[in-house]
């Protein structure tokens, strides 16, 4: 099942997409529609749910993040691909590099729920806060069955499905504070979507992860290359933290982020970041400087 959250008639709706993506069957969720796909997960609804209505065309609909506001912080994993671990360690921005480029255990941090934005929404750069904004294409899994002390052998039974996340990062803040939450949780720093795909439709251990900036392919990898696989991540986090339905775990980004280039290729006003994960879809977002419109940028370039 492929779940999408969208806007129609001035209200948020949630529905099950057809295989070709051309139509969607909205769920009847009442006030819980504001929760997006989280309401579907918490109620245990499936593709044969009697609460599904008639199909409507998707053409012209505005899609939101599948879970527009997670109930809790998003769990994220740093340095979880070997090549990325080495490129980050060499960048001079990695406060954990002293203990080795490749971590011995998962590095887990979080992003606040309020930084989630929809496909097509702008990633905002605020020069007063940061001048080193980076992109990170990632597979994110969503918990369907909660639990504590989950063992690796049982971990995948707790996964509802997956989506795409762009773990946008302020590298200068990440280095300044010697921890990652502030640099990762800036407003608009978590584009998510376009859909939430149930685990039975994809092989989460074999998903191609690609990212382009302005049409230039920057990241090209596969989740089979994760240092710590998804069962390990679930076991690690749940060892002392209870996971709940709807919790999101972003699994890490592969080599090719902006900080890995010399000089670094940071995001700037007018850029477009496009992320594609096989079996899930495409997440694309423009980059805008706060307080500056795209039209103003075009006019300035024309005068130059």
From TrEMBL:
<protein>
    <submittedName>
        <fullName>Fumarylacetoacetate hydrolase family protein</fullName>
    </submittedName>
</protein>
<dbReference type="GO" id="GO:0016787">
    <property type="term" value="F:hydrolase activity"/>
</dbReference>
<dbReference type="Pfam" id="PF01557">
    <property type="entry name" value="FAA_hydrolase"/>
</dbReference>
<keyword id="KW-0378">Hydrolase</keyword>
<dbReference type="InterPro" id="IPR036663">
    <property type="entry name" value="Fumarylacetoacetase_C_sf"/>
</dbReference>
<dbReference type="InterPro" id="IPR011234">
    <property type="entry name" value="Fumarylacetoacetase-like_C"/>
</dbReference>
<keyword id="KW-0479">Metal-binding</keyword>
<feature type="domain" description="Fumarylacetoacetase-like C-terminal">
    <location>
        <begin position="74"/>
        <end position="288"/>
    </location>
</feature>
